[in-house]
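Quick start: what a row looks like.
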Amino acid sequence: MRVAIVAFTLSAAACTSSAEKQAKVEQIARTAIAAESSTAAAAASLPSTGKWDQPHLVERLVRAGLAPQALHDLKPEAYWKAPLLAYQLGPSVLHAYIYSDSAARRAVSSTLDTIMAAPPGRAGVYPLRHILILQNNLAAVMVGGSDTQQERVRLAIEAGLPAPSRP
């Protein structure tokens, strides 16, 4: 009987510990999503230039219902020649590179194998389940996710930004 009580107590403690860990993970995710949502809200007050920037990218992802969470620990591949903005989108990761203009983006993306999203002959940079998305001054690689999720992200980005406002 004593053994059963001890076993029950230990299993209850393990469940609580597991539940607490899960609650902590969920709280961290909610905090990260809230931070990106505030970035998206700030995009509305920025002037429309017709070029992608971080707030407008985040706004587009939030409006598409993707709940982005910034990933600050990922390192960019040197061949992109731009800083990396990475976002967790559910089970997927979006690697985004924003250039000064579309010509600068095209100078880099035109040298890539579009199937591998890497320079020709360089394989294994991204897992095989990925898509390359190019729009104006933005290049992005979506890694993972279902066909539906990849299409949602692709459509959200390829729709582009509003034209710059005229004075």
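That is the whole record. The radius of gyration is 21 Å. The first helix runs from residue 2 to 43.
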